[in-house]
Amino acid sequence: MSAHEKYDVFIGLEIHIHLKTVSKMFCSCRAHYGDEPNTNVCPVCLGYPGTLPLLNERAMELGYHVARSLGCRIADRTSFVRKNYFYPDMPKNYQISQFEEPVGVEGLMEADLGDGGVRNIRIHDVHLEEDAGKMIHAGDVTLLDFNRAGYPLLEIVTEPDLRTGEETEAFLRDFQRLVRYLGVSDGNMDEGSMKCDANISINHPGKGLGTKVELKNMNSPRFVRLALNHEVIRHAEIIDAGGSLIQETRLWNENRDITESMRRKEEADDYRYFPEPDLPPFIPDDAFLARVEASMVELPLDKKRRLQAEYGLSPEQAEFIHDDVATLHLFEQTVRTGSSARNVAAWLSSDIRKLLNRENLSLADSPLSAARFSALLKLIEEGRISGKIAKKVLENIFSENSDPESIVEKEGWSQISNPVELALIVDKVIGANPEVAAAVRDGDMKQRGWLMGQVMRASDGKAAPELSGKILDEKLSTIV
Amino acid sequence: MSLISELWSGVLIEPGRREQYTRLVGEIDESIGSFLSFSLENPTGKPAGKGPLNGLPVAVKDNIAVEGRPLTCGSHILENLKAPYTATAVRRLEDAGAVVVGKTNMDEFGMGSSNEHSALGTTVNPWNKDRVPGGSSGGSAAAVAAGLVPLALGSDTGGSVRQPANFCGVYGLKPTYGSISRFGLTAYASSLEVIGALTRDIDLLETAFGVMAARDEKDQSSISADMISEDATHVVMLEVDDEILDAPVADAYKRTEGALKEAGYSVGKVSLPSLEMVVPAYYTIATAEASANLARYNGIRYGHSPDFSENPTELMRMARHEGFGDEVKLRILLGTYVLRSGFQDQYYVKAQKIRTLIRNELAGVFASCDLLLMPVFPTQAFLMGDAGMDDYKQRVADVFTCLANLTGLPALSVPTGIDGGLPTGVQFMAPAFGEKRLFKAARDLTDSFPLQTAPGALDIRSLS
Amino acid sequence: MARALDEWSLMAELARLELDDNEALRLAQEAERMRELFLTMSRADVDSLEPTTHALARENRVRKDVVDSFENIDVLLNASPELEDEFFLIPNVL
Description:
The complex is a heterotrimer.
Chain A: H1 3-6, E1 8-18, H2 57-69, E2 73-74, E3 81-84, E4 94-97, E5 104-112, E6 118-130, E7 134-138, E8 141-145, E9 152-158, H3 165-182, E10 194-203, E11 213-218, H4 221-240, E12 248-253, E13 258-261, E14 274-275, H5 286-294, H6 300-311, H7 315-323, H8 325-336, H9 341-359, H10 370-381, H11 387-400, H12 404-411, H13 419-432, H14 434-441, H15 445-458, H16 465-478
Chain B: H1 3-8, H2 15-30, E1 35-38, E2 57-61, H3 88-95, E3 99-104, H4 138-145, E4 151-156, H5 162-168, E5 171-174, E6 194-199, H6 202-212, E7 234-238, H7 247-262, E8 266-270, H8 275-293, H9 312-323, H10 326-339, H11 348-366, E9 371-375, H12 391-396, H13 399-407, E10 411-419, E11 422-429, H14 435-444
Parallel strand pairs in B: 2-3, 2-4, 7-8, 7-9
Antiparallel strand pairs in B: 1-3, 4-6, 5-6, 5-10, 9-11, 10-11
Chain C: H1 2-14, H2 21-39, H3 73-78, E1 83-84, E2 87-91
Antiparallel strand pairs in C: 1-2
Helix pairs in contact in C: 1-2
């Protein structure tokens, strides 16, 4: 009997995302990754005496946007607190956060949890806070870079509604997709724009929550899965053996594939929350709420369902198209120009995808725009190029970064659709293959296909297939 | 332009008087110790602005940032720090023509009522050099009383402008919370404190306040509001147990009643039932906020750091051990205690509710009067050292001043003369943004209580 | 006093204050005096009142999301007790 059959498992998450603002949460320093150390700093984010936090309106708006999108009850009054603890990378030695009046509470996120089905995961709350700096350990010293200090963070806390590592990984991928749909965050766990801590407890069926263990240091959705599954087994073994768990924080060790107790000898945390006196409470007005409403977008799962229902995509195609927000946008823009949705989806999920993989490019960085994509499809539809040529045109869009029309023109890839010109080619093919022609006349339609192939070859693939076929058929029936 | 501004306006311009001024300040301040640093050179080299305060020297308490000048807060932990920016209030004064000439001594981080908690120097009372100048803006009060500057900035968290002004016989304004930006004021208790001003000239005080008061983009707790009218005819006096006050203080209080009536005011009486809760509530909130505000001083980014430490925690612990004085440590301990989870309701939240109670009581008082009259402090300037007042008694004696900080209301301490060689005074409190009433009442008392000059004070008229 | 001493030592720990023995005793005594003063607040009947957290806050205050970089970053870096290249330096976390 597996641990999951024997025990109820409860997993909750604390997800942090960096919000996409151009400046920091409480000062006007640039919020940007990868700059030289300590170049995006000022007296405010270095915690100088006399400085005061200045709330970034955009961060507040993005916070409300997420809370609203997660179906939270959004706050008609929200306020900040100081969370007190000492850490070398935290300039003020308190973090400005939210506690009793977060931007949103009691939400629900619909997620496709794979084998766990589509479920609603309850959101406890969504709150704003500021990030700390970065510590780089180098031998017996630690280097401090405060560029990240004061970066706007949004923390999303779920109820313990997840049951397995697999479900949790799927949930996280859904969540990443959500924040990218909303455009509020990059949601990259490897770059640090998204972080996830988990809490887990197990108990005998029907007994409710067990002893809670916090898990940290998981730098990808995959590690979250591995760490949680490792914990389920560890908890089950302890309970099986009649032992009891310690409420503690454990770190995922990705080199050893195990969790390890943090064993910090420091005293128990007491954050001593109290209202931030430097920031008045925020009461959203109608204009603010209208802006939040205006920024709402269709959520990923709704989108996926609509891709199938409205555009007739297969579940696989819909999954593929909705997964990545750049793919989705290209799909939607291209379809809007009148191209067939299934065609667009087919190209995106096969040739374009292969090309991106080969070139190791993301769609956003690729030279393929909606305008070029729809021009390419139009060339096919209008019979100006064949599907086969279209693939070559696509390659050239990538290699030359130019428009399909000019590629076709430059390469002389326009389809031959002049009946006189085509008739000459067909005549040449029949003339060179009299036995095959005779066989077709005798009803061997397989051989007709071979003849068509010869026509395409003789025309360097440029012969308009439909018209050429018609001419071929006419020629074969008249030369008796 | 006020008389005092005219007298001072040329001092910093003419090289001869400039030199004479610098020399006299050095001579006089040698025995008073009001300045921690003094220099007529602007370290940023930026030119002065032009306006109603042209050429006026200003002293600034050393917890307010002036770019390029020290920002010690009277503490070892910031002994070598120079401010990398300028406080909004100072910038506005400079834009109006004022010139910062030095930074004044203070109780460490504003924690104290005597200036004896400065880690960086001793300041004495210009009226009697065996006595304290008061605190925590003691250096600013002493500098003004000694005639070294016509105007000084202080900060008032629980009486830190008004009490030293009272001890030194000058005016001390604690404005409405949020009326003057706190940007650049080193935080001790953020929800209580405000930058204030000290001077011997009520017109200059009004001008300076008008220059500094503005909503500031760099302080989101700053407020723009219309000043309420200066009309004030009815004053109520807080009923105070005579035995709480030293005889000269009680006497000055009574004489003020008479002087007000003489000036045409009607004077009533009022008692505040919650007065006994004011000090514990004030210290609970002040220390709670202080424990967070002072957490940033850890020897990593700036300020004092120990010679050696094995790990970051030791680095922080030692920087704070070596950098902070007793009173600061005590208040950090208290603030940590009252904020602990499980204890908050009993202490911190209780104090915040008492704050509401007191606000309500004062709203009731101001519904039927224009100004509230109170003592400033139960004693005159006390002796320095062990012969003076013990620290606990000093804290409890904040009762009359911290009322204005808990409620955010403006208050002004006004000198009423000299008794036994030491200044006495009273304070007026007004509804929010009622500063004009405070100035008017002070003006109306000048006939009865003409301002006295401390012995040995610099007379700017003597400079030639 | 022993219990009080322990309790205030715990506060010192939370506040990252190293205290020597004399200091610890002196401060604990003074802190106990203040704690007793604080306890007098229990006499106030204020349960029905809302706490005052901001003395006179009246309006929302926000700033626009625009970058305005600080000019004198060198001054900030040079204020550090220990600097290596462009990093603030501390002993390693063990």
